[in-house]
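hiii, so i know i said id send this last week but things got crazy w the move. better late than never?? heres the sequnce for the chain we talked about at the cafe, plus the structure i predicted for it. fair warning i was half asleep when i ran it
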Amino acid sequence: MIDLILLGCGGNVPMPNRFLSSLFINYKGRKILIDCGEGTQVAMKKNNCGFKGIDLILITHLHGDHIIGLIGLLQTIGNSGKTDDLTIVGPTGIIDTMNAIKVLIEYLPYRVYVIENPREKFSLDKDIISDIEISTIDLDHSTECMGYSLYFKRRAKFDREKALANEVPQKLWKKLQESDTVVYGDKTYHSDMVLGEERKGIKLSFITDTRPIFEIPEFIYGSDLFVCEGMYGDDLDISKAVKNKHMTFREAANLANNGKVDRLLLTHFSPSLEEPKEFAQNATKFFKNTIIGEDGLSLNLSYKD
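okay and structure toks below
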């Protein structure tokens, strides 16, 4: 199971009831953030997220409402007792940005690795985080911006008949469902000796800030959850959306529909959008399974079978 908390659903500037962009992901006790806007630390405290287990931070772009919370957060992570590595991924410019941030931080008891502008699917070679395949897409915003898709892979089903046919000792069955190889006696056993049919994992896609470009539906296709910006709820604000390179609720819903996703979570609301739920019908009319985000909203993603 994957636990999610929308830490901040605001765009541009924080409001008394709305922190800036950040999504918290808890997967098997390891923690991931997508974006780190102002208020992220406070939101994590309010929601008892914990800081020490953060292994990966994905930054969509370098506008302040998506990254300004990093300075304080990195220090707090250090104060939590973390000593193992932390990886930060972002668009072109993230290395220079992190170098500037490090000037303001006296000391961190862990190493920070920065991956800039990855072009293909990748996984991190780090315990359970290696189970996650990450893809990126270039978006259409006023600065270079990336969307992310996280695919949480799942081990194939255990095949008892296959294990017996391959003469795998029963005491190794469970180990081989969790590890690629096990050495027992003078023989090496491989997981494919006991595993059978592949099983579908979980796909989470995160798109903000951008206009609705035609590549997005294919990128998000089949997502169990599609987290998307909804800067403007009112269809009459389409001119603002075009000018500022953002989206309306209707445009986000059309992407969800075309991408055949299970659920749409709208976030990144304009400060002028005081009550996003008042415009919910502008999304649900085109994509019924739409959730209007709010700070502290928690969701769970589970395997289908």
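btw Residues 70-79 form the longest helix (10 residues). thought thatd interest u
miss u guys!!
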